[in-house]
Amino acid sequence: MSNNLQSKLGEGLSKFQGGIEQGKQKLQLVQEINRLKKEINEVSGKKAKVLLEVGQATYNKIRQGEITDPELVELTEKLVGFDHNIYQSRKKVAELNSTSDNQGGITCPSCQTVNSNDAKFCGGCGAKVEAAATVLSVEGEPCVKCEESIPHDANFCPCCGTKVVG
Prior knowledge:
This protein is mainly alpha-helical. Helix content is 56%, strand content 7%. The chain folds into two domains: 63 residues; 88 residues, no CATH class.
């Protein structure tokens, strides 16, 4: 009977050790899968950043007239409208800042927190802040893309960045 008990205990212990071994293998498999998923996410993030940089560089070249591919130009037409809206809003902010003097501070372009005039970075969000350039109303020819008035001595539209032809 003691041999039978030892035999059963041995079998049970072997099954238990086998289960532990299978558990270790499953854990290693799950860890490897998670490591690979993390790597995929990191590389995908890096890829997205590079694609964004490529897109920005391409858009800048289209604006400067260096790329004239009709398909790319058509894809970027919507951006000109966005540039115009951003330009107009920045112009209004500069006008409001100059009239109210913002209690002697610089408004952060990211979060609109008012910072001291000598601030280099925003106290609200940490973004770099600079004294707002005064945007003056200028008289000149209208831009061929966004129709914003371009100063006579300018080489590019101050709104959309399109190269002045002429």
